[in-house]
Amino acid sequence: MKTLRFLAVLVVLALPTFSLMVRSGIFTMHDPHLFRMKEFDQCIKDRVFPCRWAADSGKGYGEPLFNYYAQFPYWLTELVHFTGLSLLDSAKIVYGLSLLLSGFTMFLLARKYWGNKGGLVSAVFYLYAPYRSVDVWVRGALPEALSFVLYPLLIYFLDLYLEKHSSRYLLLLAMSLALLITTHNLSVFMFLPFLGLYWLIGAVHRHDFSGVPGLVLVGIIALGLSAYYLLPVLAENKFIDLGSTVSGYYDFHIHFATLNELFISRFWGYGASLWAKKFLSISIGQLHWILPLVIICLGFILKKHNFSFLTFCLLGVAALFLTHGKSSVIWNLVPLMKYIQFPWRFLGPALFFLSLASGYAVSFFNWPGIRLWPVLLILLVILINYNFFRPDIWRNITDKEQYSGPLWDEGRSSSLTDFWPRSAPQPPADFAPVSARFISGDGLTVSAVKKSSSADYLLDVSRAPAVVSLPITYFPGWHVLVDGRSVASSPSGLLGLTSFRLLDPGFHQIYAVFSDTWPRSLGNYISLFSLLLSPLCLLKRRIG
Question: What element of type H or E holds 480?
Fold first, then answer.
């Protein structure tokens, strides 16, 4: 019951981080996740699983968006949407949950180290870090925001597995890792090295490496569960041009943080991250670094040390270092790091470890007769940072307005080159037409119906043979059937449109469908078998 009371208090304390969402409409944001939610929703309505293609992306020509972009955030939104709520309301609920649930999972972890009061302090610090508001209220970076829910669970289940070597915690750890992979792959890339360092430091300290076999099994299970997503990404990345995601504005060299921006500045904005100036906050939060620093200094003076606290501080500082230009040598040595794009993204792991460390203050400053000082500490961090959790512009609109007119066109044009197929030499300048185009021969489109991963056209061919291109960007997996018979198709023109030949005049029913290639099918089967078989490890009570 005592723990439940602390959780109830945490709910109340967390309210200011998302309470302004409780009204009709939606806030403006950098990332196009509202559009992607609509595309994913259409996939589900068309009974396409797993979703791979976004038909309205690429200005209506379509892109293999969900073949490369993690899908779990959209599944979570869709589950809320199933209750009958609008997509915009569902989105706000999931954004709010990314904050509230991260407080819960941090409390769950931190109370293992610092007790309920210390856990509450860590949870509130975790919630009220400025970067948490940047992720939700400024960037609208839903996958990254949800990653904050999973960071504490990875440490929590790792600790429990290493303590008990129980197969139950091994499976929970593997599932948490799989969820992170299918939520935000960049967060995996950023957090996993710190998780490994955390385990290594602890193993050396305990002189116990017995958990290695079990951790290898964790990796195998997590990879198996996420294979439906990972295998196509690895096997089919050659079919898209990722150059635009690491060049120009997305070149990591122009996004390093300064010491002033990290530790001192209180600037708040809703703009872009530029070389000369960041028009958004990339602060770790003043109290988030001052409190651990004070404890470290006093600890050395008083010869009062805590191994876990110092470990968390070390990992937090290491993550902070990667946000600064002095770490550029590491970025240049590890080529894959360029895909992180913004070095200040390492604020995520940094604030996680520093928030976790901050809960130690409750036991470190254990002053007799002064029981309310943790309350004052919690109120202080809320008062300093709560004003950041607000929108720039609030649009009092409905789903109908969001998914039509200028806002819909904005969504269809968003992130145009992120997943653009190599088969198309250039991205489109205009929106896709409804009708098919006759490259040679002549005819007209009688009717056209496009769905999430298929399209139906009735063509009247007046002069044959004819070469016809559909307003669909070609990508491996697209198949064309003419009057029920499969025909060869290939990309044509600067937009790489799906094209095929018609030999006879008259009416022809054209059906184009986006099917799974062997990496997609294999990934689907591996994930299915992993989901069915992974509980078998529970039959063995002790692993490692």
Answer: strand 478-482
Q: Which residues pair with 443 in a beta bridge?
A: 461
> How many angstroms separate the Cα of 304 from the Cα of each of 204, 300, 356?
21, 6, 18
Helix (H) or strand (E) holding 162: helix 142-164
Strands (E), 311-406: 394-395
For 443, the token pair is 């005819």
CA torsion, ordered 88, 94, 99, 105, to nearest 10 deg: 170
Pair 141, 177: CB distance under 8 Å: no
SS3 state at 464: strand
pTM above 0.90, yes or no: yes
Q: Tally the C-alpha atoms within 13 A of residue 236's C-alpha that lie toward its C-beta.
A: 28
Say if residues 163 and 54 touch (Cβ distance below 8 Å): no
Is-contact 62 54, C-beta < 8 A? yes
Determine the 3-state secondary structure of 168 from DSSP.
helix
Q: Which domains occur in the chain, in start order?
A: 70-226+242-386 (no CATH), 437-519 (2.60.40)
Give 166's DSSP letter.
B
- Residue 123 to residue 127: CA distance in whole angstroms: 6
What digits encode the pLDDT tens for the residues 381-402? Answer: 999 999 999 999 999 999 999 9
Residue found by looking up tokens 């009958």 in the block? 84
Coil, strand, or helix at residue 278?
Answer: strand
Which residue type is seen at 408? W
Bridge partners of residue 498, in order along the sequence:
491
Residue 525 to residue 24: CA distance in whole angstroms: 41
Nearest-angstrom CA–CA distance, 202 and 23: 46
Question: Residue 516, Cα to own-chain centre: how many angstroms?
Answer: 24
For residues 252 and 337, is the Cβ–Cβ distance under 8 A?
Answer: yes
Token pair 């009688």 is at which residue? 446
In the chain, which residues have pLDDT < 70? 1, 367-371, 538-544
List the beta strands (DSSP E) in 373-436: 394-395
Spatial CA neighbour of 95 closest among 110, 77, 70, 112: 77
The tokens for 437 are 């185009």
> What single-letter DSSP state applies at residue 344?
G
What is the reported pLDDT for 415? 85
Task: Dihedral sign for Cα 383, 264, 299, 355, please.
Answer: positive
